[in-house]
Specification:
The protein is of the alpha/beta class. Helices cover 17% and strands 23% of the residues. It has two domains: 38 residues, no CATH class; 188 residues, 3-Layer(bba) Sandwich (Glucose Oxidase, domain 1), CATH 3.50.30.50. Helix 2 packs across helix 3.
């Protein structure tokens, strides 16, 4: 009888980590059981601390964060108001659920240097290596090795990134959801900004994101544990996003489902 293994592909949302730009770092305020007891005494007039189990009340957290904090799924609306060459771009609450549960494919580009572009030829070579042909609605995961820098400022400039052409190579084959273990689906933004200042070519700016103007697609960023999947294909990915009205992204806890 086959066993089924579930692999968590997400990072935790934590407060204070410098792996986001300053304005995007989540804040988590914790109310522990002792403080929760005080709240419960106010909520239930007449109750005493000793009336509650162990003198404890509820634990609660208040979180301040962006829809792009933690592991998240970007909707086409994040990239541009239009997708599919002129249609209104889908927001996260409009993403078809069938996009978010399908066969997974893991492409390993850890040999690429930080800031390098992952080209079409790189994708083709990797698919040849793992002996796989992309089919519609496959969920393609890109491993750059950036995960090793999570929790540190270096995370923002670690890992290779996809290009416009390599993104379209996947979406033209019917792929609608992809993911990466780096901060961005594109090459690291600080490195792109530096390149733009040096060369003055606006085509380098957010090119892989802007590919969604031609073919609408979603991508997950800040993924983790891709190595734990243990195979390049022959598994499924489940990645339903939190439903936020008219939002550009939603938090997600992607899971690889591996039958062994």
């Amino acid at each position: 009888m086959k066993s089924r293994r579930f692999v968590d592909l997400s990072i935790c949302i934590e407060g204070g980590l410098p792996s986001d730009p300053p304005g995007m770092i989540p804040q988590v305020d914790y109310t522990d059981h002792e403080k929760g007891c005080e709240s419960m005494l106010n909520y239930f007039p007449g109750v005493k601390k000793e009336d509650l189990p162990g003198g404890f009340g509820w634990a609660v957290e208040q979180i301040t964060l962006s829809t792009h904090s933690g592991t998240h799924l970007d909707a086409p609306y994040h990239y541009h108001p239009k997708m599919d060459r002129g249609k209104p771009a889908a927001t996260i609450d409009e993403i078809p659920l069938e996009w978010c549960f399908s066969d997974g494919v893991l492409l390993d580009f850890r040999h690429k240097g930080d800031g390098e572009g992952i080209m079409v030829e790189d994708v083709k070579k990797e698919l040849d290596r793992i002996e796989y042909e992309i089919k519609p609605l496959d969920i393609v995961l890109v491993q750059t090795g950036a995960e090793k820098a999570w929790g540190n400022p270096e995370y923002l400039v670690t890992g290779a990134g996809m290009t416009r052409e390599s993104t379209l190579y996947l979406t033209e084959k019917g792929v609608r959801v992809v993911g990466i273990d780096a901060w961005s689906w594109d090459r690291p933004l600080p490195l792109i900004a530096k390149e733009f200042q040096e060369k003055g070519d606006p085509k380098v700016i957010w090119e892989a994101h802007f590919a969604g103007i031609e073919i609408g697609y979603c991508h997950m960023e800040k993924m983790a544990n891709l190595s734990a999947i243990g195979r390049p294909h022959g598994f499924q990915v489940c990645c339903f996003p939190i439903k936020i009205k008219r939002a550009s992204a939603g938090w997600v806890r992607p899971v690889a489902i591996v039958d062994e």
